[in-house]
Amino acid sequence: MYVSADELDTPADDPIISEYIYTNSISSSLSITSSGSATGTSDVSGNSNLVTKIVTHQYLQKKNGSSWDTIDSWTNTRYTWHTNCSFPYTVTETGQYRIRTEADVYHNSSYETVDCNSNTVSYP
User: Fold this and answer.
1) What is 2-123's CATH number?
2) Chain segment 105-115, per-residue pLDDT in tens
3) Residues paired with residue 58 on neighbouring β-strands, in sequence order
4) DSSP states of the chain as a string?
5) Is 29 in contact with 118 (CB distance < 8 Å)?
6) Which of 8, 64, 90, 119 is most buried by a 10 A CB count?
7) pLDDT computed for residue 19 by the predictor
8) Residue 61 backbone phi and psi in degrees, to 5
């Protein structure tokens, strides 16, 4: 799933931010093979003139009724305006899975947080 910064919503009770200052885009995807080999990928792109660091948090989640349980997580820090990170995992249980990506996009000591969810994949 690809989400541009202009498409991200801010909850009504949060301070209103008309658009993100540092972030251009965020996306995440998940693939699982028939043998259970899963790969989650997250891509975050910021303004190349402003962004000094991106901290990406990836959460592998399994659907549990109407909610999603996190079964593993990874954090990646890059001192650049763009990052693409992925992780391997072996899925052993039947179910529906997704990747949740949350990223802190920095300009020096200031930052904004953006997030998105990947496609949902059923296993097996």
Assistant:
1) 2.60.40.10
2) 999 999 999 99
3) 74, 101
4) -EEEGGG----TTSPP-SS-SSEEEEEEEEEE-TT-EEEEEEEEEE-TTT--EEEEEEEEEEEETTEEEEEEEEEEEESSSEEEEEEEEE--S-EEEEEEEEEEEEETTEEEEEEEE---EEE-
5) yes
6) 8
7) 77
8) -125, 145
